Amino acid sequence: MSVPYVFSMWVLGAVSVACLLVAPSLAEIKDLGSHFADPEPRGFEVGGGADMEAVPLEFHKENTVTNDLLFDGFEDDDYIDFDKILAAGSDDYTEGDEIDEIATPAPDIDIFAEPSDPKIRRARLLRLFHGRSRLQRLNIVNAHFGFNLYRSIRNDVNQSDNILLAPAGISVAMGMMSLGAGSGTRDQIYGALGFADFVNASHHYDNTTVHKLFRKLTHRLFRRNFGYTLRSVNDVYVKREVAVKDAFRAETKAFYFAEPQSVDFGDPAFLDKANSRILKLTKGLIKEPLKSVDPNMVLMLLNYLYFKGAWEQKFPKEMTHYRNFRVNEKTNVRVPMMTNKGNYLAAADHELQCDILQLPYTGEISMLIALPSKINGMRTLEQEISPTVVKKWLKNMTNRTREVAIPRFKLEQNYDLIANLKEMGLTDLFQESGDFSAMTSDKVHMSWLKHQGTITVNEEGTEAAALTQVGFMPLSSQIRFTADRPFLFLIYEHRTDCLVFMGRVVNPSQN
User: Fold this and answer.
1) For the Serpin domain, which residue ranges apply (predicted)?
2) How many domains does the chain divide into?
3) Does the reported pTM lie above 0.85?
């Protein structure tokens, strides 16, 4: 009987992914040297605003290290050109935009409730799916998972701690891992992530539809000329002596643009080259994330997500002044508060007792700020936030001239997610009972799963993700929106309804 390999997973970045440890194979796996000499980052530079700090997202997967990337001017040459892929007829670009008819429940079901009855929960989800494209539906379940993971993390940290999470990246990492899982472990991933809810919504869908739509999501998010910069890279590194199955290698490349690289994890040069690649691809935002690597590691998955967006209405720097920010009822901190006046969409949710402001970036992407009315109102908002609530906010916003004040802030967070994912039902991944037979014939399990991110919000922008109206009224009477107390923020890409980033700012004076 072979000794089980340890499966290690590390997610880094504003939008994170995962690091996976599996048995590597030499069968048709690219050599490390060619990867570094001829790097192929996956993603797109879409042209963001200038002079902003970036939001990087990274997911660790053991398999891809880049050698000597040139930092300046590499974007256009090194990124996959999806336009060429589509022009060659190798992909049906419209598939993700199809709207399949699904059986919807009676209109008297309150989809904004959070019932314990699974039938009612399913009915609510199906109503939320109605009229949405396939890709939007997948992102609804991705957001459901992201909000649940956020709540799990929230329960593990102090009330005074800031939080930063990249739900889309983690979902991508889990989708990629499910390619290598046997049927039982795959079903557990699909159940915990909500992929099963998506697949069961229509007879047109099966497990492969999830992977096809993650490929579509890459097409949609990382294209040029959207007015912002959003870039994603999936790297896969495999231990030289380990055999990875051809099907897994082919599918990760086809669906996630990740091609396994054969490496020696015991070689110090691996750390230097991998960290150098991460530093370059995240524009210097993530420095030496890999402090050390277990030489016995078999597979490492890395995913980087970098976002840089310019506000449609930039905050005049001369209007930024230090003001008090109320961390809690007893503590104030002095922070630079950015101020602007213009037309903004906003709403008030009287049921959740919060105000919501939409701050658009250039392009179809924006930051939503949800500000509790009371200093101690964050707990209720965090508990109730869901895709249905967000949709309700967006549907009921009004546009008028407002004076907006929000703090300038930078967050850097690092989480070990194993305990959180176990709590959410993902247990097989981290035990010897886990089945990764679709990836390798060796017995493996995961022992390392980290999520690291950084985001900066300043005057220029951000660098780094028929409904009931009960208890909800438009924010029509207020002309000021002042975020001088703890708030939630969500970064949404609106073409796909993708929740790219989310977090909370409790103390903007702390990273």
Assistant:
1) 147-508
2) 2
3) no
